[in-house]
Structures are given as structure tokens and as C-alpha cells.
Design goal:
This protein is mainly α and about 325 residues long. It is about 80% helix and about 0% strand.
Length: about 325
């Protein structure tokens, strides 16, 4: 393959990747506390700037088009994931990054193989990288929240036993815990100060942090507000339940670790062996890379290997 043919596509792909990184760095930085609270207090269905306006004979702007297109569940799900990941970016910016990554993948695929199908596949893989990053940030943030929750429940229980109100206990949690616990409870407190009932504010927080353990807290607060009971005792029992659930999760993770590692080895072993034979004995792999029939066999093998890897991951997910 000629090096000059690789230079221009590689340069274009590199420039696109730099632009994507700058856009994401500009939007993913944590804003000030006031702006973060105001963003989180707005509901997802009205969070887009400009809102839904009446249409006339004029053409729709890009923001109005996104607002109307927002009715699709995919965009709503993407914005929810952004909120849950703690990334304060607009949907338009994220879609722009995905489009630029797809373009970079097309250029890279054209430089590597010159085939349309492979170029589109590489472009799709590159475009999925921002989604994967958001999902990873979301998972890490939710795990951090779940890890902090038992200690926050103990602190609220101590505040209630000392004679403070529930709102004061939540304020103590905000002052003692960092993000994400402190940030989420700060948003709930600000909503309560603006007139939203505290149980409803906690329900709104549950939408931003979809944790089953947090759902137990929301139910306990709502029952206490409607029926009346000793919330300190309920929170004490709830803290024990959350710790028991987390221990069960760790046990399940330990029991399935060997199978997960086996799935990873089975998924990556063909790739490692193919790379090794390409270096040690290139004649063994020339048919796969340069013969049309071998290239089709290699494409089918890649698809089947990916499906096997995903199937093993699906089987090892324990629901309880």
C-alpha cells in the first residue's frame, strides 16, 4: 500500500479526532454549582433551549429540528445517560461529535482497505466510541453513588435521632459528601426550597440516579410523609438492607469472574493468534487478507466472534 495514499486520510482523521476531543472537553467539564443545579432542576423534556415553537412558512432552525426530533426515545435516552453520567453537554454537541467520529472512521477505513463495507464498519465503530464513553462514565458514577448511599443513610439517621428535620439531615449529607451524592441531594434540596414537596424532589432525583437502593429511600420518605412513622428506624433498617444487597453483588461478581475471564480469552484469542501468525509466518494469513474469498471468511469470523462475546456477556448477567 502506498504511503502517500495513507497520508491525506490519516491527516483528516487526526484533525477530526482533535476537534471531537476539544468539543467534548469543552462540554464535559463540571460547571459551577449554581449552573449545575439549574440544569439538573430542569426536566429532560423541556431542557432543550428554545423549546417547541409554532411553525409557519419559515424553515426550522437546527435547534428547533432537534427539539421536534427529541420526541424519539433514542434522543431522550441519550440525554438521560448524559445527565446520569454527569456530562453537561447539549444533544446537538454530542451528535456533532458522533458525526465527526463517523467521518474519521470512514477516512481511516478508506485508507486501510478501500472497501465501502469495511469503511462503514470502522466508521460505525468510531461513532460508537462517544456512546461507550458516556456509558462508562454513567456506570462509574452510579457505582460511586451506590457506594456512598449506606453512609449517607447512616448520617441522615443520626441527624434525625439528634432531633433535626429530614431536610436538615439532607443538608448535612450535602456538606459532607462529594459528587455524586452531594450534587444530587443539593439539587433535591433546591427543588424543595422552590416549593416542590420533598418526596417529589427525591422522586425527581431517582430519575437522574436510577438506583434500586435509592428507590427504597424514596418509598420510605413517601410512606413516612403520608402515613407517619419513625423515619430514623426505617433508615436504619434500610441501611442494613443496602449493605446486604451490596455484599450479595460482590459475591455474584466474584463467582462469575472466572467465566467472564474465559469469555474475554475466547473472544480475543482468535485475534491474538491471527496477529501472531501474521508476524511469525505471513504466508499462513495472506489468503485471508488478500484473497477475496479469504476476506469474506475473515469478515464472517469477526461477526461471529463479536456475537459469541456478546452472548457470553448476556449469559453472565445475573438478575435478582
Amino acid at each position: 500500500m502506498n504511503l502517500d495514499n495513507l497520508l491525506i486520510p490519516a491527516a483528516v482523521a487526526g484533525i477530526v479526532l482533535v476537534v471531537c476531543a476539544l468539543l467534548f472537553m469543552r462540554r464535559s467539564n463540571r460547571p459551577g454549582v449554581t449552573r449545575a443545579v439549574m440544569i439538573r432542576m430542569s426536566r429532560p423534556d423541556v431542557a432543550l433551549e428554545g423549546g417547541i415553537t409554532k411553525t409557519g412558512s419559515r424553515r426550522l432552525t437546527g435547534q428547533e429540528f432537534l427539539t421536534r426530533f427529541y420526541r424519539l426515545n433514542l434522543l431522550q435516552k441519550l440525554e438521560e445517560n448524559l445527565w446520569q453520567a454527569g456530562i453537561y453537554a447539549r444533544i446537538a454537541d454530542v451528535l456533532l461529535v458522533i458525526l465527526l467520529m463517523f467521518t474519521a472512521g470512514l477516512f481511516a477505513g478508506e485508507a486501510i482497505s478501500g472497501r465501502v463495507l469495511i469503511s462503514v464498519g470502522i466508521g460505525a465503530a468510531m461513532a460508537s466510541l462517544p456512546i461507550v464513553y458516556i456509558r462508562m462514565r454513567r456506570q462509574r458514577r452510579l457505582k460511586a453513588f451506590a457506594k456512598q448511599l449506606p453512609y449517607a443513610l447512616d448520617l441522615i439517621k443520626s441527624s434525625l435521632e439528634a432531633g433535626h428535620t429530614l431536610l436538615r439531615g439532607l443538608q448535612v449529607v450535602v456538606s459532607e459528601f462529594p459528587d455524586p451524592m452531594g450534587t444530587e441531594f443539593r439539587s433535591a434540596i433546591e427543588q424543595s426550597r422552590l416549593g416542590l414537596p420533598l418526596p417529589r424532589a427525591l422522586e425527581e432525583m431517582l430519575k437522574r440516579v436510577p438506583q434500586d437502593d435509592l428507590r427504597l429511600l424514596v418509598v420510605a420518605v413517601r410512606v413516612q410523609a403520608e402515613v407517619g412513622s419513625s423515619l430514623a428506624i426505617i433508615l436504619g433498617r434500610l441501611s442494613e438492607i443496602v449493605r446486604t444487597r451490596q455484599r450479595l453483588q460482590q459475591q455474584i461478581k466474584a463467582l462469575t469472574a472466572q467465566s467472564k475471564m474465559s469469555g474475554i480469552l475466547v473472544g480475543f484469542l482468535p485475534i491474538v493468534m491471527l496477529a501472531a501468525f501474521s508476524v511469525i509466518q505471513p504466508s499462513y494469513t495472506d489468503t485471508l487478507f488478500f484473497d477475496p474469498a479469504g476476506q469474506k471468511i475473515l469478515e464472517v469470523a469477526c461477526v461471529l466472534d463479536a456475537l459469541a462475546f456478546l452472548s457470553i456477556r448476556k449469559l453472565l448477567k445475573v438478575k435478582y
